[in-house]
Write a structure and sequence with these properties.
Number of domains: 1
Mean pLDDT: 95
Low-confidence stretches: none
Shape: globular
Order of helices and strands: HEHHHHEHEHEHEHEHEHHEHHH
Distance between the termini: 8 Å
CATH topology: TIM Barrel
CATH architecture: Alpha-Beta Barrel
Largest sheet: 8 strands, parallel
Length: 348
């Protein structure tokens, strides 16, 4: 059976991989620029989107990442961070997302005097306001960046420890994967493990399966951002399967960054059928011009996903959340009950 967009929109969902600065609403950027007396190339929303959305003929991950540079000057204040965090939760609620982990790189937001701790505090405040208003469980993940100094990345990890289970649930490594292999960051993530911080690493996107292997076995990742390329090495593929490491697939983004050449080669069904814990996420709501309903709807049409496969993706994500253990069991029970009700309503 083929589900309509509206039926998929009503499906309860979990979003594990969403970047804060890639999900800013253009109207908000216009207001932030006005409040901060900063100029934009245009104040027409539709024209502004051309600067915020990845170009149709995106060449690779590095070109994709360049779209973030455009919005960063406007996200250097407490007010800006709280607002965009709050609005991300609002956008998720519109797609019936029940739980979201919003990731961001604190060091990108300290250019006007905020500290790393300040950025965590204000993003968490915005997420918590959104959680209360929209009934979406919202947590954040602190990102270390490839190409940043060891000192800066270490500060991101050390400051994260103060917020663990107080709105923050994990740390991450992101950026130009092909240029900066994960082994360069072993010391940073040794520290994260010492501080008992859960770890997810962007790997197997612009780099090969070996990066996933290193991320899990050397950096301590218990989830992998993307990971679409593990099929390039059968030993690593089997290892990730045996360890049951969840993968945070972002289908539309994966095609845009050329992590995968075409929908025909997108390995999601193969991975699911093999027992790999695949989850589906948006990566960046604005940059990729997407939302979680659109991702699932696209997969249904491009890969002929069945109702059971669509449900499996949500079960996988529900069990993969980094939510603190005291809340996780109750969340899983609630989510599974909601999915059961949705299936009863639409699964005929």
């Amino acid at each position: 059976m083929t589900l309509t967009y509206e039926q998929l929109q009503q499906m309860p969902k979990v979003e594990l991989h969403l970047h804060l600065d890639g999900s800013i609403l253009p109207a908000t950027l216009i207001e932030l620029a006005s409040q901060q007396n900063m100029s934009l190339p245009t104040t027409d929303v539709s024209q502004l989107l051309s600067y915020m959305i990845v170009p149709a003929q995106c060449e690779d991950l590095n070109q994709y990442l360049s779209t973030f540079d455009f919005v960063l000057p406007f996200t250097q204040t407490a007010n800006a961070l709280e607002r965009i965090a709050y609005e991300v939760v609002q956008q998720c609620a519109e797609q019936n997302v029940r739980y979201v982990e919003v990731r961001f790189a604190p060091q990108l937001h300290v250019n006007k005097g905020l500290t790393v701790a300040d950025t965590y505090r204000h993003v968490i405040a915005g997420l918590q306001r959104g959680e209360q208003q929209f009934n979406v469980v919202a947590r954040c993940i602190g990102i270390c960046l490839r190409g940043h100094s060891a000192e800066h990345n270490m500060e991101v990890v050390e400051e994260a420890a103060a917020f663990i289970n107080k709105g923050l649930v994990a740390v991450d490594l992101a950026g130009a994967e092909a240029m900066y292999p994960p082994m360069l960051y072993r010391d940073i993530f040794d520290k994260a493990q010492h501080l008992n911080l859960p770890i997810t690493i962007h790997a197997g996107e612009a780099g090969g399966a070996q990066n996933v292997d290193v991320s899990v076995h050397e950096l301590g990742a218990t989830r992998i951002g993307h990971g679409v390329r593990i099929q390039e090495d059968s030993n690593i593929f089997n290892d990730i399967n045996n360890l049951q490491i969840p993968l945070e697939f972002c289908p539309i983004s994966n095609l845009q960054t050329k992590a995968i050449e075409s929908w025909e080669k997108y390995p999601l069904v193969h991975y699911l059928n093999s027992g790999i814990i695949v989850t589906v996420n948006t990566d960046n709501l604005t940059v990729s011009n997407t939302n979680l309903t659109k991702e699932l709807w696209t997969l249904q049409h491009k890969l002929s996903l069945s109702l059971e496969q669509l449900l499996q993706l949500q079960y996988n994500a529900t069990h993969a959340v980094f939510l603190e253990q005291s809340l996780k069991v109750a969340f899983i029970e609630k989510m599974e009950e909601e999915l059961k009700c949705w299936k009863a309503k639409f699964g005929h």
